[in-house]
Design brief:
mainly alpha; 9 helices; 0% strand
Amino acid sequence: MSTAGATFGRSAVAEPGAALSATGKPLTKRGEATRRKLLEAAEEVFADLGYHEASIVKITERAGIGLGTFYLYFDSKQQVFEELVVDLNRRVRHSMAEAMAGSTNRIDAERAGFEGFFRFTAAHPALYRVVREAEFVSPEMLRLHYTRIVEGYEAGLRAAQADGDVDAALDPEVTAWALMGAGELIGMRYLLWERDGDGRPPAEIGDDVIDSMMRFIRNALTATNGKGGTHD
């Protein structure tokens, strides 16, 4: 049985536990809902204004929540920003892992995973701006974001090598970083930058782009037969 889609999205980095208040106490269902509203509002405000122009007041106004309530859940603007990076990272990995579930070989899993990533990115373009701002606001969160993706990706590639789906001579870590970079830049070009005649971004990446991307990935991952071709 292939493990093509079994390990993507998991990471050796510990996942966050249950949501807590600013004082470290577990939240009630109502508290969790309020915290989620603040994170969703923060996602919009940071995406629209950037970290430095964003403020706690703007976040609470967007959420429709009182300013004082914010401090029941977060200590500062930086903390809510860092929690947002973790939250976006968790959700994008879940989207990719869910899309890959049931794939019977690594190439199919790659396509499904990228489609999951692109769907999430189309719905949450803030992912790009928030992650890039993390380089300056909280570099350790930038590293955590990419590390969590790559470690799960690397584990999936190692499993695929054991199954014979991926060239055993490839370094799984280097390959994981290369594929992640390709997906991120394809998403930037064809989702973040693309606009129709009315200035609206696309809801998804076209199959022709994904087809071309997958031809490149298939050629990169499949073991050669020593004559410049690939195994059938």
